[in-house]
Amino acid sequence: MTGEDSTVKETGGGVADYNSPYYVHPSDTPRQMQVNELLSDKNYADWAQEMENFLFAKNKFGFVDGSIKKPEKMSKEYAQWMRVDAMIKGWLTTAMEKDIRGSVKYAYTAAEIWSDLQERFGKESAPRAYELKNKIINTHQDGSSVSAYYTRLRSIWDEIQSVFPMPRCTCNGCTCEVGKRLVEHQEKEKLYEFLMGLDGDFSVIKTQILANKPTPSLSTAYHLVAEDERQKQISEDKRPNAESAAFKAYIPKNRDNRNVKGKGKQEEAKHCTHCDRDGHLKEGCFKRIGYPDWWPGKVKEERPSPKASCVERGSRVINGLTEEQYEEFLERFKDKTNDEGSERVANMTGRTNGKTNWVVDSGATEHTTYLGDILENKRKNNHELPITIPNGDAIPVKGKGDYTLPGGVKIKGILHVPDFTCNLLSVSRLAKDLQCSVTFYPDFFVMQGLRSGNLIGAGKCEGGLYRLKMFVEERKAMSVSISRWHERLGHTSQERLGKVDFLKGVSLNLRNKICDSCSKAKHTRSSFNLSEIKTKECFELLHCDVWGKYRFQSLSGANFFLTIVDDYSRHVWVFLIKRKSDASTCLVNFCKMIKTQFDKVVKRIRCDNGGEFTSNAMVDFYANQGILLETTCPHTSQQNGVVERKHQHLLDTARALRFGAKLPKRFWGECVLTAAYIINRLPSKTIGDKTPYEKLYNQRAEYDHMRVFGCLVYFWSIDTKGDKFEERGKPGIFLGYPKGIKGYKIYDIGSKKMVVSRDVKFHEDNFVFPQRQDQDIDDMFTVSIDNHDKQQINVEVEPIEKGNEPSYGPENNSQNEQRNNGHASEAQHVVEPGCGPEGSLENNQHMGEDSGPINQEADEGNGPVDCHEDFFRDESTERPKRNKAPPKHLNDFVVNLPPSVDHTHPASTQDASTVYPSAHYISYNNFSSNHKRFLAAITTSVEPKNFKQAMQDPKWVEAMQREIQALEQNNTWTIESLPEGKRAIDSKWVYKIKYKPNGEVERYKARLVARGFTQVEGEDFHDTFAPVAKLVTVRTLLAVATKRNWFIRQLDVNNAFLHGDLDEEVFMKIPQGFLKENEDRVCRLRKSLYGLKQASRNWYQKFTNALIGLGFTTSRADHSLFLYNNNGVFLAILIYVDDVILVGNDMKKIEEIKDCLHSQFSIKDLGHLKYFLGIEVANTSQGLVLSQRKYTLDILEDSGMEGCRPSSFPIEQNLKLDTREDDPVVDAGCYRRLIGRLLYLQATRPDVAFSVNCLSQFVSDPRQSHMDAVYRVLQYLKATPGQGILLPKGDGENLIAYSDSDWLGCPMTRRSRTGYVVFLGGAPISWKTKKQSVVSRSSAEAEYRAMATTVSELIWLRWLLGELGVPQSSPTMMFCDNQAARSIANNPVFHERTKHVEMDCYFVRERIESKEVCTVPIESRLQLADLFTKGLGAARLRFLLDKLGVVDLHAPA
Fold it and tell me: Where is the composition biased (Polar residues) (predicted)?
């Protein structure tokens, strides 16, 4: 815009008024860019702020906010106003993205544009506010500078203020001060957010800021943190390197007189009013905010010890130790004395003493001791050189020997130096001899193995010397956390843990920790007072009682258990019994055992008045043995309080074990037995803090073999049957310690039997059974996993065996406690629950102890475990499912309650938390590495769905450019003006990725497709017919090629429809992305283009002429099939638009044909057939496997059913679908899309043909029941996504068929259903399910119509096979299970029941007489066509699919 054209509002003197809003500078143009970023749907707040600033600076904001009104047309200012408004409109639209610009380009004024943008983008956005708040929470310093971190926060705060501005006080004069308090509240909130995101290095300054009263402002806090950051940077610059610092002693200097370099006059001028010193200000005074650790002049009293208790959560100062174990180190080794008051020993000059007090010294080169009597293998050596101590004295060495520290650590080569009164351990010798690391901390040191990380020893810093303190019991206590010992010892109390020998003195902080199992199991009323022990020896008095009857049987079939407690030792024995009367036999056998094993007799038995103890037989037994019976008074169980309290203790512990392991209630017996075993090994106050085991056997109990009850284990399998490739480890559940066997009791998950084995690996962090909230534990186990016998297929390179067992084992790599593996060759004992002679002690005496310690350690790990459904389910605890129905008063209303999980709109975390992930139902282990790469490529590659997505990827931009170049080189169109009366059709881009056989991308193919559906017949097209290859032809051709070992290649035509000439006059708009500005011309098509009505016919004619010229002939059975047969060379070409399959027996001729086609049509050779029309082709040792795995997964993903629960059958048996008016209506578009995609899935999935055919008849008016049935089909596909058909190499080339019908199968029309399947040498090549066109009056009539349909298909297939060189010389067998239909086919006499199907009778009978077809009887249970006429259950469906040749190469093993 020139100066002459500038709009100027002149003042009275004719001079331009530059302050007028109508003034426009000569340099202003409408296409000026006035903001930093174009307006998008995400940055309106920033954009509007920049645009407002610009318009204010130009004095033009009144035009957009409406304050400068539009003048009347007759006004002198009208033209000026319109010109300025047009200028502003240009500024606004230039600063927008193209999509937004298109939505406002027809606005009349700039104010309309501004108002529209405010309405669309300026309103409060809850999602954006949530996003910003979440961004605030996740913004941390992460090592960046304080300034950069604060800048990031400030930008987010400003954007939040623009999205949600702070409310302002509206009262006049504002006496309420609400606005002021809101500002202060917001300022504090920003301060806390700023401090929370700082790194851990600023923990001290954060504490100082928060401790100040009043709380400092945000700017003050930022200043303090920035000053702290600068001080640290200064100290780091001045800090000496680590190597030199290790040998440097710091000499304090006079602070006032030292010469500080690098400080200018400005810093020297700073004066602190707090400490009255120069060089800093009050805000950064260390006397006020605290000295940092790096401050060299900091005195010891002011510097806190850098203990690990100050380390933030999640960090580990000592590798291999948990936080809890590290806290125990602090408690054990914290410095409780004042170092200043202790005796100072400089460099070990011999002033310390103590018998076995070993000092760990990094300055010593050899181990020394002055105590010769403690050395082992002592050797006198007069030739040893003397040692030199720091003061320069040389001390003679008298000998050398070894010493074993408590705990078994042996130190070799210790020098005996009597004149050096100190026991020294050299750090360098320790690290080399023991292969360990020695790490020193301010209050202690630790010694850990280099490889295992296990603790070897530790010590405390006393008087400035590190002394070795930690040995056997301490190492055992510290190697495993206190919480883990709490679980191992049956969730025992803190008091009892503290009395275990090796845990004595260990700091136990269980009171501050919540144990869910203990809280659930041990919450009781106050206990009774304990009775005193008045007996003098074991078995002087026994307390007995029976617990039960429990409503759930144990694994051994028991409903009761007998408890016997020895009064003197408080040792407890537990016996699981089926009936109360069995307690008498157990008690008698127990007394005999006491006599034999302990050579003692029972003197007294105290019990209640139960008949099992006071029967005549038992009274006689007491009299014969001289036992005195003591019974309680009626209803006075307190007199038998010892065993009653023991019952409570047993049940508390057993419940805690069950809850911790998440076991069903049928495992209660093993919980009680293990509880008794554990209780006998826990100290008790009643017996002087000793264990019952120690009181009874006079030896301490062992704990090393104990593990967490109910955890996942793997035990050695002996069921290999000599097979070297069978499983060596089997998964199980640890259920306690058997009596008399040095092993562990394991519940075998696979065989559901109890076994005993010592070759066990433990995973104490993992439990087999899942856990769910707000649900009873026994109702949780309803996981459904369908495991069918799969046909073993050898794929590509080598076979992979598949079984029916689910996969068990760790999957997550988390930090676990280290264990050593124990191995032995003992075979495990299989224990059948409830076996053995009834009433014998061996059958009933499941004692809670074993005969000796089990010296075995195991590995630990973690990971989820999958099990069979019937293993999880507890049959005795299942509750019947009640039918749920909406209330009757809501029958007249439409009520749609939201489901618990909406799979159609999954949450962001749903994929990670789904119970049924897709990975459980699909595997790639059966394929070679090349085929895996190919499957990964077609699965992970994403094809753009529209032009906008394609423009984001340069590869697709290049593909579109190549397509346009090919179109122009082929003279596909000419650019012309659109004639009057003509209309131009539109076009769109379609994108496809072509792959090589090894999975590499062959090319990115972009197709320009004309929207031919807008063409008018007779005007711009006439004939549209073009043959398309039938899927039956595809399967037949591949089956024949597989059986005859022909070569199979796949070809692709670069631009198929470009080669068809176009006779009609068709105009098309210029393709998207190539339209130039101000271009109004269109493309007149000279040749065919994708999408045109006549395009496929033109292309087919062109390609046919080319093949005929090469010697091919068109098949009469399928016009898309072309055959070449000359001098023993046979080739077949099958075309489907631009995808071509070429098979033949002569590779040289195949190459010749490819070269000829390439010269005419630019053919691409894609190699071996791998992926054709969405069908995946896998070459196995048995033949070809066709599947639609990716297509199935895409359907599940697009429908939101990836996380659905799988089903073992696609449709319910006897399900009758109809169109009921009271059934709720569903989205018809969604239903039709699903049915349309499922229809094509039948190409390789005969198992869903019947279900999809039934559901497809409701596409015009789908209801909720129909949609539910579709979801059932999707659930079935979820369980078998990779299932397909096998085209075997063998089994001959004979054609056979199965025909069946379902009489009156349709509940709405009462029409019957036809179903058939045809095999070529065992390969399923054709199948169909269809409702008959008329109602059949009898089942024979329905069967005969089905036979007629099958015969028609057989005649066509025989014709096709004859052309493929597979003639059928013998009649084709057609199996039918209806005797009447077979009789009609073979009997020329018609009667009343058949005269209305006379035409079908003649048709079938002629084919039978001509020996083309013959009917064969078959049993109904073997009728394979049943699959296509009715819904089947899981077992029947699996049976028929196996017979049909359906396999699943992707089924997980």
Answer: 810-823
Residue 1185, SS3 per DSSP: strand
HEC-encoded secondary structure of 246-270: CCCCCCCCCCCCCCCCCCCHHHHCC
Which amino acid appears at position 192 of this protein? Answer: Y
Query: Predicted confidence band at 930 (pLDDT cuts at 50, 70, 90)?
Result: confident
DSSP assignment, residue 350? S
CATH class of segment(s) 494-759+826-859: alpha beta
CB 1289 within 8 A of CB 1182: yes
Contact between residue 1296 and residue 1323 where contact means Cβ atoms under 8 Å apart: no
Model-level pTM?
A: 0.41
Q: Provide the pairing of β-strand 1372-1376 with 1295-1302.
A: parallel
Q: Which residues make up the CATH 3.30.420.10 domain(s) of the chain?
A: 494-759+826-859, 1290-1376+1378-1417
Tell me the per-residue pLDDT of 683-709, one tens digit each, with 9 for 90 and over: 988 888 899 999 999 999 989 889 999
Contact 504, 473 (CB under 8 A): yes
Strand duo 604-607 + 541-547: pairing: parallel
**Cα 1286 from chain centroid (whole Å):** 32
**Mean pLDDT of the chain, nearest integer:** 76
**596-647 residue pLDDT tens:** 999 999 999 999 988 889 998 899 999 999 999 999 888 777 888 888 889 8
Its CATH class, for the domain covering 1290-1376+1378-1417, is: alpha beta
Give the pLDDT confidence of 950-994 residue by residue, as tens digits: 888 888 888 888 888 888 887 888 888 888 878 888 888 888 888
Q: Cα–Cα distance between 847 and 571 in angstroms, integer?
A: 11
Going 854 to 860 to 862 to 866, the CA torsion angle's sign is negative
Confidence of residue 246 (pLDDT cuts 50, 70, 90): very low
CA distance 404 to 38: 78
> What backbone torsions phi and psi does residue 196 show, to the nearest 5 degrees?
-65, -30
Rg (CA), the chain: 45
Could you say which DSSP state residue 1062 is in? E
Cα separation of 150 and 160, whole Å?
15
Q: Taking CA 1064 as the corner, what is the angle to CA 1059 and CA 1069, rounded to the nearest 5 degrees?
A: 80
Distance CA 1237, CA 1230 (A): 11
pLDDT of 483 > 50? The answer is yes
Residues in contact with 531: Cβ distance below 8 Å, sequence separation at least 6, in sequence order:
641, 642
Sign of CA dihedral 460, 462, 468, 472: negative
Q: What proportion of the chain, given as a percentage, has pLDDT over 70?
A: 74
Give the per-residue pLDDT at 527.
57
Express each pLDDT in 254-285 by its tens digit. 444 444 344 444 444 577 877 777 777 777 78
Whether the CB-CB separation of 158 and 215 falls below 8 Å is answered with no
Specify whether the CB–CB gap between 730 and 753 falls below 8 A: no
Q: What single string gives the DSSP state of each residue in 1243-1297?
A: TT-GGGHHHHHHHHTTTTS-BHHHHHHHHHHHHHHHH-TTEEEEEES-S-S-EEE
Strand order in the sheet with 711-716: 760-767, 711-716, 729-734, 744-748, 753-757, 829-831
Name the burial class of residue 1415, with classes exposed (0-12), middle (13-18) and buried (19+) by CB atoms within 10 angstroms of its CB: buried
CA pair distance 1441, 1421, nearest whole angstrom: 13
Nearest to 157 by CA among 193, 106, 205: 193
Tell me the β-bridge partners of 1319: 1296, 1324
Q: What are phi and psi of 245, to 5 degrees?
A: -65, -25
Report residue 864 as tokens.
Answer: 């989820």
How far is the CA of 560 from the CAs of 493, 607, 747, 1098, in angstroms?
Answer: 27, 16, 21, 87
Above 50 in pLDDT, residue 351?
A: no
Cα distance between residue 779 and residue 1231, in whole Å = 35
